[in-house]
Amino acid sequence: MQPHHRTDISNVLVIGSGGAGLRAAIAAHDAGCEVTIVGKRLRKDAHTVLASGGINAALATRDEEDHWGWHVMDTWNEGYFVADAEKVGILAREAPDRVRELAEWGMPFARTEDGDIDTRYFGAHRYRRTAYAGDWTGRAIVETLHDQVAARGIPIREQRYVSRLLVHDGVCFGAYTFDLDTGERTVELADSVILAAGGHTRLWRRSSSRRDENNGDGMSLALHAGCELQDLELVQYHPTGMTHPEEHAGQLVTEAVRGEGGRLFNSEGERFMERYDPERMELSTRDRVAMANYTEIHEGRGGPNGGVFLDISHLGKDAIREKLPRMHRQFVEIQMIDIGEEPIEVAPTAHYSMGGVHVDARTAATGVEGLYAVGEIAAGLHGANRLGGNSLAETVVFGKRAGEAAAERSRSLDVQLRNRAVITAAAEELDAAIRDGETVVRQVQRGLRDAMWNHVGVVRDEDGLNAALERLDELAQEAETVDVRPDAQGYGDLAIALDLRGSIEAARATTLLARERRESRGAHARTDHPDRDDDHHLVNYTVRLGQDGELIVGSRPRKPIPEDLEEWAKEADEELEAGDKLIE
């Protein structure tokens, strides 16, 4: 008997309604394709809205010396030399046009006295190149892109969960979905599929992501489709997340606070960044500031809630309300603290997945024909540490490229592939996930997040990583007994159970690669291997799913610097100080 579901057909299917997915959909539509967007959350409420501080582009509106080449080198250095240099070059060259495009579409960027798009400093930037809209830049981008999507009549099917990508003979031809409220199932058939489903930072107990997003489920979908993942061990811990109350622990305190002059102090009143990076201080690289904060807390110089203190009160209330309105409101509403009058307590929080699906730098194509990946779920741009402000630039630069590539493939096809057996298997898999069980899924989810925070967190070692793998085995067994029974409240429990399955898989892959990288590089800090080892680990570690369902670890040499970027590398080499940030 055939399973009951409806079928929708489009040229290009976009999975994810954040900045990357919206920009990809616009590009595919403008290339002449029928496009459908499916999103797990309500429209305009994707993870992108949490990106506060700004979007990078070498506009030179504040510092005329800035140039896309310096953006390349800042990104390359920040990534500790394991990023895809070609992808870095594309981002730096094209970001200015994408930012100006957003402005033309009505994006309310802050402006200079002359009416140009304003820019401010972010950590580890040579010049001011982070354009912004207050401290709600991500939300402003989503609103702007959504208006463009609506004007084109591109449908967004919200609160749709993708349980499986549909793949036959190495070709992706759509996705199997269900409605989170009604449970209605839909087969989304498409010539090309763009995966823009976010990262996996919610696997950690303290995370700047919200509940039930960035669970690694997109990475699991890609693995089962036949994709290769890389760099999952390279997870950025933002230096400043909220410390309390518990339900808000890890919630982001934007880097814009430090960009506008915020200062870090320990419980002894010391401005401690003088010990860790006396030249750049609070505007050092994210990995260094996060490690400094962690060290101060770990060595007993933290505050009552396990954090250090960030003070922006010297900026003045009027300037704070203009430059940091969301942060001002966030602390008044959650902690009844006015950041214009007193410091706030902050601590590192899991913030960004720098690894993900291995993709072509130019087209965002994966190793599976017809499947593309873009945004936080895609690897290659950030290396071992992300330059603040690059994530939003990534969404619009590579979102456009992915949409155009997906549309080009669709236009090249005479017929649209489908395979009934694959669709039936996806339906049966979903049926099997609904069951009476003895375990509450949230308990297993909490166990996973505690294990990752305790053993695969800001600092790591071999014993802890092995302990994490053992704990993940136990949690995988517990996950097989979770209770999943849809009711009048909808199909949320089913989604959480599927998220858990994907989370355990993504966590295992991350831990395996963290164990393989026996060095410290950027955000990956090993206490048992404290030094960077370019002789053995100047590679990208990879993982794929074997035929028996086991994860297979591999590696590939880091891609060389393209010839057109070598001159910038040479010039930067002459200017940058010797040490960790020296260009090779």
Describe this structure in words.
- By secondary structure, this protein is of the alpha+beta class.
- It has a domain at 236-351: Succinate dehydrogenase/fumarate reductase flavoprotein, catalytic domain (Flavocytochrome C3, Chain A, domain 1, Alpha-Beta Complex).
- It is 38% helix and 17% strand.
- It contains 17 helices and 18 strands.
- Strands 1, 2, 6, 7, 8, 9 and 16 form a seven-stranded mixed sheet that branches.
- A hairpin with a 2-residue loop joins strand 7 and strand 8.
- Helix 1 runs parallel beside helix 11 and helix 2 packs across helix 17.
Structural features:
584 residues; alpha+beta; four-stranded antiparallel β-sheet; seven-stranded mixed β-sheet; 17 helices; single chain; globular; Flavocytochrome C3, Chain A, domain 1
Quick summary:
This protein is an alpha+beta fold. It has 17 helices and 18 strands. Helix 1 links the parallel strand 1 and strand 2.
Please give the alpha-carbon distance between the first and last residues.
62 Å
Helix content: 25-40%
Helix/strand/pairing class, anyone? Answer: alpha+beta
Low-confidence stretches: 575-584
What would the average pLDDT be, to the nearest integer? 93
- Say which CATH homologous superfamily of the domain at 236-351 is assigned: Succinate dehydrogenase/fumarate reductase flavoprotein, catalytic domain
Count the beta strands.
Answer: 18
Under CATH at level 1, the class of the domain at 236-351 stands as: Alpha Beta
- Using only C-alpha atoms, the radius of gyration works out to 23 Å
How much of the sequence is in beta strands? 15-25%
**What does the overall shape look like?**
globular
The main β sheet shows up as:
7 strands, mixed
Number of helices: 17
CATH architecture of the domain at 236-351: Alpha-Beta Complex
- What name is given to the CATH topology of the domain at 236-351? Flavocytochrome C3, Chain A, domain 1
